[in-house]
Design brief:
About 35% of the residues lie in helices and about 15% in strands. Helix 4 links the parallel strand 2 and strand 3. It has about 350 residues and is α/β, with parallel strands linked by helices. The chain is built from ten helices and ten strands. It has one domain: TIM Barrel, CATH 3.20.20.70. The longest helix is centred in the last third of the chain and has 22 residues. The radius of gyration is 20 Å and the shape is globular. Helix 3 packs parallel to helix 4 and helix 9 packs parallel to helix 10. The strands form two sheets. The protein has an eight-stranded parallel barrel with strand order 1-2-3-4-5-8-9-10, surrounded by seven helices. GO terms for molecular function: 3-deoxy-7-phosphoheptulonate synthase activity; identical protein binding. One of its GO terms (biological process) is amino acid biosynthetic process. This is Phospho-2-dehydro-3-deoxyheptonate aldolase.
Length: about 350
């Protein structure tokens, strides 16, 4: 009599992945890239802690679906980063994983062919290679950490990381953040509430032990020392925007009770712009005006931006518009330049006030 099967009853296929160390050897970083990552991490720490009066700007596509257009965007952004470096610390948004409310395209790593084939073994090297190319320009990269295994494959190339609104309350992601080597921003909850993000910061600052995998791909127990470089990202919520002066005051008061400097970063997209990418400049203009009036608690902003504004749907048999998002709508390149120049002017006034 055959044994009764009780496991893997709903697993259609298991395919091997390379060990993280094998992928890193195949697609290695050099000392110049390591220096780019290290220098930016320190700059972000200093800005978030108020030791550097420049502004942190995390800007780029909602998600990466086409490495070619992403690299062209990175080349353009590198010129802006260099020109505005005395006032802004610009980091490119390079998001490979997309959390879905129900179902949908999960990002370049999970589905690099955009066809539901799930060729993660091809998406991982594609993502790592693109991160190398971006960092080789001298442009540091930011990403959202979603799957707890994936950071082993590319976190060494990330200067700033985010934990999204859907996962900020997750114990797994708080543990993950406690062991990451980069500064991490926790977004407020989907309802707009900030306490979950403050709780996440306190948790991630602590030591944790949890199951993980080693660089060689073996199961292990990871014990972390805690991450002191965590902060809050305001992205609005179901009730609307949450970056008004009253919201900032409330967040600062709640953070003070918890003994936290929240190092506030405002995400100009999502609910803060009513999910309308063309309203992102309005959010930035509001923030800029307040900074010029002396607001020091807002230390950075986030923008969703691509070569071509708006978004597009995938239509079978039809080519995609080059440089346009297939997930959330983005601000086009020309308006992005205008927004970054406004932020640089604003940061310049902050620097003059601090002098």
């Amino acid at each position: 009599m055959a044994p009764i099967q009780t496991d893997n009853l709903r697993i259609a296929e298991l395919r091997p992945l390379p060990a993280p160390a094998d992928l890193a050897r195949e697609i290695p970083r050099d000392d110049a890239i390591s220096q780019t990552v290290t220098d930016c991490r320190q700059a972000v720490r200093d800005i978030l802690a108020g030791r550097d009066d420049r502004l942190l700007v995390v800007v780029g596509p909602c998600s990466i679906h086409d490495p070619k257009s992403a690299l062209e965007y990175a080349q353009r952004l590198t010129e802006l980063r260099q020109r505005l470096a005395d006032r802004l610390e610009i980091v490119m948004r390079v998001y490979f994983e997309k959390p879905r409310t129900t179902v949908g395209w999960k990002g370049l790593i999970n589905d690099p062919h955009l066809d539901g084939s799930g060729r993660i073994e091809e998406g991982l090297p594609l993502a790592r290679r693109l991160l190398l190319q971006i960092n080789q320009l001298g442009l540091p990269a930011a990403t959202e950490f979603l799957d707890p295994i994936m950071p082993q494959y590319f976190a060494d190339l990330i200067a700033w990381g985010a934990i999204g609104a859907r996962t900020t309350e997750s114990q797994i992601h708080r543990q993950l953040a406690s062991g990451l080597s980069c500064p991490v921003g926790f977004k407020n909850g989907t309802d707009g509430g900030v306490q979950v993000a403050l709780d996440a910061i306190r948790s991630a600052r602590s030591s944790h032990s949890f199951p993980a995998i080693t660089a060689e791909g073996r199961a292990a127990i990871a014990t972390t020392t805690g991450n002191p470089d965590c902060h809050v990202v305001l992205r609005g919520g179901n009730k609307g925007p949450n970056f008004s002066p009253a919201h900032i005051d409330q967040l600062a008061a709640s953070a003070a009770k918890d003994g936290i400097d929240p190092g506030i970063v405002v995400d100009a997209s999502h609910a803060n712009s009513g999910k309308d990418p063309e309203r992102q400049p309005e959010v930035i203009a509001d923030i800029a005006a307040r900074i010029r009036e002396g607001e020091t608690r807002i230390r950075g902003v986030m923008l969703e931006s691509h070569l071509v504004g708006g978004r597009q749907d995938q239509v079978p048999g039809q080519p995609l518009t080059y440089g346009q998002s297939i997930t959330d709508g983005c601000l086009g390149w020309e308006r992005t330049v205008e927004v970054l120049e406004l932020l640089a002017e604003t940061a310049g006034s902050r620097l003059q006030q601090a002098a």
